[in-house]
Amino acid sequence: MSLLVEEIEPKMPLRKKVVIIGGGVIGLSIGWQLAKNSFDVTIYDRNWAGQGASWAAAGMLSPRAEVHMQASDLLQLGLASAELYPEWVGELESDSQISVDYRTHGTLMVSLDRDDQAELEHHYSMQLALDLPVEWLTGAEAREIEPYLSPRVTSAVSCKKDFQVDNRLMVQALIQAFEKFGGNLLQQTPVCKIEIQNEKAIGIRVEEKFIEADLIVLSAGCWSSQIEGLPDWARPPVRPVKGQMIAVRMDVPTILQHVIYAPDAYLAPKSDGRLLIGATCEEQGFNTNITAGGMFELLRGAWEVLPSVYELPIDETWVGLRPGSRDNAPILGKTQINNLIMATGHYRQGILLTPVTCREISSLIMTDQPSSLIAPFMLERFV
Ligand SMILES: Cc1cc2nc3c(=O)[nH]c(=O)nc-3n(C[C@H](O)[C@H](O)[C@H](O)COP(=O)(O)OP(=O)(O)OC[C@H]3O[C@@H](n4cnc5c(N)ncnc54)[C@H](O)[C@@H]3O)c2cc1C
Predict the structure, then answer these.
(1) pLDDT one digit per residue (tens) for the chain, 383 residues
(2) 86 C-alpha vs ligand 1 centroid, how far in Å?
């Protein structure tokens, strides 16, 4: 009888069942592409999806401003992701019908005194040595571009190609796009354990229930090392790095267009009138207190470069936890446990690195071909 049925109904190829642990920008973006390519994808989030670091971020896409000489692989990854951004945003906006406020005014790094200026000159010479498209400006030239900058600004480096996005809109767009292609999003559903048998990940445990999977992606941000079941060497060494932020509301017309990197704070103006001021960088474990000192330092740092901040109403204050790995670079790709893929540890650059992580990890899953771009970021480097 069953033979007869098979003869009549052509066999459908089995859809690969992928479980993604963590619905931040990283898990959601991989899920979106896999669902779009007909995989059977479920994303589990222990909270509401996208409310972790992805919600807390400032949305700056600054591989050139944030460059460090030691980390050339990370620079290449960041530049590749920045390059992907326009097309990736186009696809996301079209799939979700949500604009993510991708702003292309560029970034100015500014100095306020002789010490800052010497540091900025050093940074600028490093950027030039790396052949990055940057330009030195005097304080007056910087004020021609941004008239509300303080007269105390002595000089600036213009990183014309470092843009920004509204990460909160990006989260909403990713959820919409993921679900549009049949992705299954289970929120308020923590994954307790990854089940491993003979060095192969075979499923997860949610409360007591076992859920089978062909492939598991671990993208649980700064909580990635807390999930049980992995042997110690396979736990991604990721820690929380606390960042406090403030949003003030700008007057109309807005007083700032560019992202500003000041010596003690950065400022990221959004099209809806919010001006984000960030961020502290604190090793405080999972503590999420907003402190008077943190707020004071950020406001002082912002006011020094943009005095009109003094008059602006405060919209919101918040804290986020960046997922920082042992070397502060992401952990990406296959592991020595079959069917377990890592996509975590994006630290300060997870919004920037979303398109490249999304492309490389989803194509690794779809084609099983290794990627040279993410090869330096495998978990193996810590083992
Ligand atoms: C203050 C601040 C400013 C930042 N600014 C920028 C910036 O300007 N530009 C930039 O590129 N990056 C920035 N970042 C970094 C960026 O936000 C992160 O690198 C990025 O959001 C990481 O995304 P994620 O998806 O890995 O993590 P998250 O967004 O934290 O998502 C992880 C998800 O996993 C879920 N989870 C955890 N444990 C479990 C479990 N057991 N089961 C199920 N789900 C689980 C969580 O609930 C969470 O939703 C900033 C970060 C902070 C905190």
Answers:
(1) 344 444 445 555 568 999 999 999 999 999 999 999 999 999 999 999 999 999 999 999 999 999 976 678 999 999 999 999 999 999 999 999 999 999 999 999 999 999 999 999 999 999 999 999 999 999 999 999 999 999 999 999 999 999 999 999 999 999 999 999 999 999 999 999 999 999 999 999 999 999 999 999 999 999 999 999 999 999 999 999 999 999 999 976 679 999 999 999 999 999 999 999 999 999 999 999 999 999 999 999 999 999 999 999 999 999 999 999 999 999 999 999 999 999 999 999 999 999 999 999 999 999 999 899 999 999 999 98
(2) 22
Token pair belonging to 192:
């307790």
- Domain 107-162+239-325 in this protein, CATH class: alpha beta
Locate CATH 3.50.50.60 in the chain.
15-98+167-237+327-382
Q: Which CATH superfamily is 15-98+167-237+327-382 part of?
A: FAD/NAD(P)-binding domain (3.50.50.60)
Residues within 6 Å of ligand 1 by CB: 21-27, 44-47, 49, 51-54, 56-60, 190-191, 219-221, 223, 227, 243, 245, 278-279, 320-323, 344, 346-352
Show the tokens assigned to 92: 């996301």
Q: Classify 106 in phi/psi space as left (phi over 0), alpha (psi -120 to 50) or beta.
A: left
Q: Please, where in the chain does CATH 3.30.9.10 lie? A: 107-162+239-325
Q: Calculate how far, in angstroms, residue 198's C-alpha sits from the geometric centre of ligand 1.
A: 31
Mutate to test the pocket of ligand 1, among 259, 347, 351, 353 (most ligand atoms within 8 A of CB): 351
CA distances from 211 to 18, 157, 173, 377 (A): 11, 52, 28, 29
Cα pseudo-dihedral 336, 340, 346, 352, rounded to 10? 120
User: Backbone phi, then psi, for 241, in 5-degree steps?
Assistant: -120, 110
Contact 64, 133 (CB under 8 A): yes
